Please model this.
Amino acid sequence: MTIDEADVRRGDVDPATGAIPTALVESYRQDGFVRVRGVLAPAEVDRFRAAAEAYLEAHRSESHAGGGVFTQLVNVWQRDPTIRELTLHPRVAGVAEQLIGTSVRIWHDHMLVKEPHNDVATEFHQDRPYWPHAGDRLSVSAWIALVDVPPERGCMTFLPGTQRLTGFRPQNLRDEEDLFTVDPSLRWSPRVTVPLRAGDCTFHSSYTGHMALPNRTDQARLAHVSIYMDAATTYTGAPHVVTDSLGLRPGDPLDGETFPRPRS
Model:
């Protein structure tokens, strides 16, 4: 099933108040993901896309991802002033806070790029098992399309309702069977594919099972992801590229300048 894109293009965020329709909040809380259209204005998309393309050109070799699934650049907001504006964008954060009903901090951002003619899928997985978080249940990712992302360019597919499933081990992004090995019943769950226009976002719970299709087009799939966590989240002590160099101890809050509140 593919969400219909044939309706007249409009934004879902009230330009005066930043509010989104109640129906979108209800949909997120039921399914664990939602598409919010037109979160970024066209001029913002152009500006942020240009900055992302320049950063990617200069730093592609620093990608944290292996195996050819995607190019991943982490915590770009700490190194590029324009991308910092995107990661800390109050409109995007405001939508996230409406969806989960509490204040948030930035966990990290990352650019996720599927290079042209990359015929490799990012297989079904949850995000949360990878993170050294304690005391949280509401972490959410804003997946911001900086180019049009139809299915053939690598948009995402979600497993509705899987945000209620916790306690899983990390899953292998390159193994199409791994999540279904963890929970075989998920193989028969409905799947929803969500194409995006540039400036649209999907917001998904860190527990929602999802995958990304291959990019079979001539254009890079350029997405920027701002990941938000509950403001009260603490550190477990487990290794992670974001926290390894910070000298944190188990139980320390993930706060301060490294994990800012976007709307402050």
Summary: Residues 1-8 have pLDDT under 50 and may be disordered. The radius of gyration is 17 Å. Helices lie at 22-31, 42-59, 81-87, 90-100, 178-182. The longest strand covers residues 104-114.
